Amino acid sequence: MPAKSRFTRLDAFTKTVEDARIRTTSGGIVTIASLLLVFYLVWGEWSDYRRIVVHPELIVDKGRGERMEIHLNISFPRIPCELLTLDVMDVSGEQQTGVKHGIRKVQLASPSEGGRPIDVQSLDLHADEQATHLDPDYCGECYGPPAPESAVKPGCCQTCEEVREAYASVSWAFGKGEGVKQCEREHYSEKLEAQRDQGCRIEGGFRVNKVIGNFHIAPGRSFSNGMMHVHDLNNYLDPTQGSHTFTHTIHHLRFGPQLPDDLTKRVGGKTMGWTNHHLNPLDNTDQSTDDPAFNYMYFVKVVSTSYYPLGWKSRGFSIDQGDSSDLVSIGQHGLGQDGSLETHQYSVTSHKRSLKGGSDSQEGHKERLHAVGGIPGVFFSYDISPMKVINREERTKTFTGFLTGVCAIVGGTLTVAAAIDRGVYEGATRMKKLHQR
């Protein structure tokens, strides 16, 4: 038997001769409609295949020894920059007092003058702190305490700022620097008086250990007195310096890098399951008070969040990133060269109270009593969640799934079209027979 005959019996697609085929107008219409429908459904299947979604996962955060960045932009319209100090501390015992690296203070005009930014150099309190005009043999007195380690000339206090640091090292209040030659030479008191009615905007970023901690913005230079963290409030509470308060506006506060604009547009859509990732709860927060002895506290819960783009492949997991992260400049920490992003989301609750104590009777809550004492300022206490959110970009279906869908569309559409055409043809034939009778 020839090889061709063996497969003839297995043919499931029997053919008809050309003379036995009947072409009708209704069949042509059904064919065109079915082809249009196939093209439309295949285009929809292709669009669905090309669509990228973000798939969130929740896992236990197993990283340790990590660091994270905090970026802030906060305005204080009723307190000058010279009186504001940014301090950071955490449960590991690490303290950063008077943080300056990565932080910029912008002097603001008084609220009556519109609060516009002022040229920082024009009223710089420490413009002469290098003291380059002094005699090379000059050694300034520190007025009691030992010279600070950061002094330009070891064992000497050449500038007013170095005297202030020396006072802070032994937990002494400094005031306006009366009787201190360095401060009188630099006109520290006069420049402080010139800033009395000004405001200040603190902006920038700094790096902290990824453990429970807090950072706060409070008046005066800070120092440790035994087990207590203390601020020099002399100039802040001095009635001759005007009425300073911690009225403030939080323009922006985030933990970790900001999502890129193109990604923000995608995750901000209604189809995404994590549309609030790019939103920071404290952005554009306003707080106002006329009480100088007032304290604002924000309790923040930080959740580590990773974003992996389409096609990202794991390159291994590092459990100790502390040393390497310090080599990265502020603002670049968490940004991977492969497009990945390590950042943080957070939730927040807030509380405020007068340091004079009392109750919330004016707000209708007599049962709420506040303790007396504390440091005026704005405090942020952050806690780290043990969970981590991983967001991966994925396609809704594989290429194999796309081909399967196309085959299903073509086959299903033609089958239904054949049934419709058959029904129309049979109906038209029966009607003709009825009319012929």
Summarize, please.
This protein is an alpha+beta fold. 24% of the residues lie in helices and 29% in strands. The protein has helices at 3-8, 25-50, 160-169, 181-185, 188-194, 234-237, 261-267, 322-325, 399-436, and strands at residues 52-60, 67-76, 84-90, 95-96, 103-108, 199-209, 213-219, 222-225, 228-231, 248-255, 285-287, 294-308, 341-354, 358-360, 365-370, 377-395.
Q: What are the defining features of this structure?
A:
437 residues; five-stranded antiparallel beta sheet; 24% helix
Structural class: alpha+beta
Average residue-wise pLDDT: 80
Main sheet summary:
7 strands, mixed
The radius of gyration over CA amounts to 36 Å
The helicity comes to 10-25%
Distance from N terminus to C terminus (CA atoms, Å) equals: 53 Å
Number of strands: 16
Name the beta content range.
25-35%
N-to-C order of helices and strands: HHEEEEEHHHEEEEHEHEEHEEEEH
By DSSP (H or I, 4+ residues per run), the number of helices equals 9
Q: Which residues form runs of ≥5 with pLDDT under 50?
A: 315-320
Overall geometry: elongated
Describe the 3D structure.
By secondary structure, the protein is α+β, with helices and mostly antiparallel strands. The protein is built from nine helices and 16 strands. It has helices at 3-8, 25-50, 160-169, 181-185, 188-194, 234-237, 261-267, 322-325, 399-436, and strands at 52-60, 67-76, 84-90, 95-96, 103-108, 199-209, 213-219, 222-225, 228-231, 248-255, 285-287, 294-308, 341-354, 358-360, 365-370, 377-395. The strands form four sheets. Strands 1, 3, 4, 7, 12, 13 and 16 form a seven-stranded mixed sheet that branches. Strands 5-6-2-10-11 form a five-stranded antiparallel sheet, with no helix packed on it. The longest helix is centred in the last third of the chain and has 38 residues, at 399-436.
